[in-house]
Amino acid sequence: MKYRIRYIIFFIVATFVCPTISAQSSFKLKEKDIVFLKDLPKKIKETSGLTYWNNLLWTHNDDSDNSIYGIQPATGEIDSIIKIESLKVVDWEELQHDENYFYIGDMGNNGQGNRTDLRIFKVSNKDYTIDTIQFYYPEQTDFSIHEKRNTNFDCESFLATDSIIYLFTKEWKTKKTTLYKLPNAIGNHKAIKVTTFKSKGLITGATFHPSKKAILLVGYSKTLNPFLYVIYNYTNDNFFYGKQKRLTLKERFLQVEGASFINNTQLAITNERFHYSFIKNPPQLRIIDLTTVFKKLAIPTD
Q1: Mean pLDDT, rounded, of the chain
Q2: Mean pLDDT across 232-238
Q3: In the 3-class helix/strand/coil scheme, how is 108-130 assigned residue by residue?
Q4: Taking CA atoms, which of 40, 229, 246, 261 is between 20 and 30 Å from 215?
């Protein structure tokens, strides 16, 4: 009886709290949809974030390297390097930008799962001065040392607007992602939980469509099968209460980490190097043409 009561309570809570999933079917991208593929330059050993600014794709390594690298989308070669001398990071996992700032996400937490210094650096793109946005998850109460890759409070992706930053967690235990929001302002902020989405894998990157009428998340499964989620038809910032379309790639053993649109139909993604036994995948840049998918979903393509 107690079990049945618990089940009924769970069902009621899930019905009214969890987002309505309008589309969970997968669409396999075709080989012809990948219009550009090239190994990344050797300086970029462990690409993590990706953003398109001033006609270049900007990425970074996720270690102590304090440089961001501007890559020509047409060639895959490094065009520019910005070195931010005063930047000191622990685990740099995401890069975003707006008109005046780069946003650097020093919030990777997959080592021991107990970081208390989660932060996003807001860096002026004119003089490279740095402001710091600190945050914490109120739901995390256990800060003991965890086994590596065994926490639900890791995060490798966010989106930035003028007033709000949206975090998408990388949940190693549940293979879900939770959307949190916090103010785009200096200070130490409580991340406000919005909802949890059954991503069926680890979310590692996020980007707005140029129209702001869709967002795209990238990630990979526990067996390193890469996927993308197109999130659309949402109201305001209730992203997961809209519709979702999961896209998969033919390639395997790709640790996809970064994503950014370069126009309304072309998405750039990068993956880290993966070497295990006879499997050797170098870090790479791919540009995917999503015209066919977006026309089916009524997402702007012009």
Answers
A1: 91
A2: 94
A3: CCCCCCCCCCCEEEEEECCCCCE
A4: 40
CA pair distance 277, 281, nearest whole angstrom? 11
Angle 209-295-293 (CA atoms, 0-180°, nearest 5)?
Answer: 75
Distance of CA 177 to the CA centre of its chain: 10
d(C-alpha 282, C-alpha 46), whole Å: 10
Q: 175-199: string of b/e by CB count within 10 Å (b at 16+)? A: bbbbbbbbebeeeebebeebebbeb
Nearest to 93 by CA among 263, 262, 222, 270: 270
Please list the residues that pair with 253 across neighbouring strands.
Answer: none
Q: Provide the pairing of β-strand 226-232 with 214-220.
A: antiparallel
- Are 159 and 51 within 8 A, CB to CB? no
- Tell me the one-letter amino acid at 164: I
This model's pTM is above 0.85: yes
Q: In angstroms, what is the C-alpha Rg of the chain? A: 19
Lowest mean pLDDT across 17-26, 99-108, 179-188: 17-26
Domains and CATH numbers, the chain: 2-297 (2.120.10)
pLDDT of the residue at 24: 56
DSSP secondary structure string, 237-263?
A: T-GGGSEEEEEE-S--S-EEEEEEESS
**Hey, what amino acid is at 141?**
T
Residue 9: its pLDDT value, please?
A: 37
Q: How many degrees, rounded to 5, is the angle at CA 273 between CA 272 and CA 276?
A: 130
